[in-house]
Amino acid sequence: MQRTLINVKRVKKIVLGLICFLSITSSSYAKIWLPSILSDNMVLQQQSEATIWGWTTNAAESITITTSWNNEAVSTKAYQGVWSLKLPTPEAGGPYTITITGHEVLELKNVLIGEVWFCSGQSNMEWTPLKGLDNVEQEIKAANYPKIRLFSVNKKKSEYKQDDAQGTWEFCLPETMKDFSSVAYFFGRELHNELEEVPIGLINSSWGGTPIETWIEKEQLEAHSDLKEASTKIKDYVWWPRDPGVTYSSMVHPFLNYNIAGCLWYQGESNRQNAQSYYKSLPLLITSWRAAWQKEFPFYFVQIAPFTYNDFKEEVALVRDAQLQTMKTVNNTGMVVTNDIGNLKNIHPTNKQEVGRRLALWALAKTYGVKDIVYSGPVYKTMEVKRNKAIIHFDYVEGGLVSKEGELKTFYIAGADKKFYPAKAKIIGNTVEVSAKEVKHPVAVRFAFSDDALPNLFNASGLPASAFKTDTWTE
Fold this sequence. Notes:
The protein is of the alpha+beta class. The chain is 26% helix and 28% strand. The protein folds into three domains: 32-112, Immunoglobulin-like (Sandwich), CATH 2.60.40.2950; 114-367, 3-Layer(aba) Sandwich (Rossmann fold), CATH 3.40.50; 379-469, no CATH class. It has eleven helices and 24 strands. It comes from Snuella sedimenti. Residues 115-360 form the Sialate O-acetylesterase domain.
């Protein structure tokens, strides 16, 4: 009996020892990690709630976060290895440090507080200075802005929503800017300079050749039978993602916790095969992204430039018109027109400086409230008919209308027979008077409505008028 009792005691000691050993071991090997977007050198959105989140191998880990901008500790507890909490951010400034404490301690250093923009689309957004840019050597050499931070998202497609996407926050320096989105950089540089050097964070998540359908959550797109059917018409892009949702899942979804000021979008060339659906897909992308981020952020985009396509020529004009209608109908959006800075022989125009500047005009005026900025060229408003002439009225004609390099070009007019003829157009005050001898009773006017149109109508601030059509004819 005595011997039995001794054995029981020994077993208890062994079990307790094992428990202590396993506890110490699990603590030693417990790991906390963060998504790539939360790292040294990042920019957090100012005067907002920044979500800090991550994972741990300890399913119920206690996490405490302290920031150097207020030295206050905030705590949470992981649930099944996932944790997150929100931190109020101050006005623009820094650098700061964020300390994350659990079984181990992580430090995020050189963190700035400022304005964060998510930049997406296809190749004209992706296009880097080294691929082609006006005055490239001078621009690269001058790109020394340590308060502008750049994050390039690695290209990846996925059928399933990803929690993380690979990338690294970097200082804006000549050696980093040369491989970053030109449009995003010039946009950020303009904001930085005009907003008293506020820190700017730019997230470039773009992929050349991608149709818009890849950037919309699959379930959202396929809830619309017409958009689902239209997505099947994208057939010729075997080298790039083309299936609904596959870049959204891997290159947008991972950033939904990251608070942003707004979005930039430059895309559309790859949707000329199903251009009619763009009238619906672009608004859907905007509204679904806003819902996913749970924020009605501004969304500024670029109308695709003129280019001599070998196919689907008229459909390109429809893409541009869909972009125009989206700007008119979706709240808190803005559109940059590029029909004066395109290149008919190059689908990637090299004057990205002006594209970025024009995007920044929208943001400065509409998002940041800077006064006395003309941020849009003329936009078609209404048409009235006086005898054999059509009178076109415009919005955004501050200072009047201007014709550059001679008489107005690329205006066409039609009667009830729907046959369009080249028209004579002249500026009368803040309107354009359009007529053609073949059309006695005007019904419709179209302007710059082709793939390679090079119009010359501007407002006094030098911003070009958007292509438009007054009719709703589908043929």
